[in-house]
Structures are given as C-alpha cells and as structure tokens.
Design a protein that fits this description.
The protein has a domain of 38 residues. It is built from two helices and no strands. The protein is 78% helix and 0% strand. The chain starts with a helix and ends with a helix. It has 79 residues and is mainly alpha-helical. It is flat and about 65 Å long. The mean pLDDT is 84.
C-alpha cells in the first residue's frame, strides 16, 4: 500500500515538472466592465468577514479569559 502511494506521488511530481517545463500560450483578459462588479463583490466579502470577526471577538475574549483562569489554577494561583 505504501509503495502504491509513493508511486502515485512520484507520478504527480513528474507531471508537475513536465507541466512547468513545457511552454504554453495563454492570454489573460479582464473585461473593463467587470471591474465595478468585482470591486463590489470584494467590498461585500471583506466587510462581511470583518463583521463576522467582530461578532466572534467577544467569544474569543471569553475563551482567552477562561484560559487565563485555567492556567492560573494549574499554577496554583488565584486569577
């Protein structure tokens, strides 16, 4: 079983090396009209993640306070 996984890993590495060596023609194009849409999506995602972080911040603070009390009890001190 282990030799099979090693063989698969070697095959994957071989394909990666061949893919990196062979030249390819690719073109990247972003339509100028999509930048507004992309910026609005990124705006919503960023402030949504920020809101979730601040919502969870009180729970994180609570866990840190509980951890501090637990470590103080383990050390034999009062918190």
């Amino acid at each position: 079983m282990r030799s099979l996984s090693k063989a698969i890993a070697r095959l994957g590495i071989g394909f990666l090396i061949v893919d990196l060596i062979l030249p390819r023609n690719s073109a990247a194009y972003v339509d100028p009209g999509t930048t507004g849409l992309l910026s609005q999506i990124l705006y919503v995602l960023f402030y949504g993640a920020l809101g979730v972080f601040f919502y969870c911040l009180r729970y994180i603070k609570g866990y840190i306070a509980k951890l501090k009390e637990f470590l103080a009890r383990c050390a034999g001190r009062k918190a």
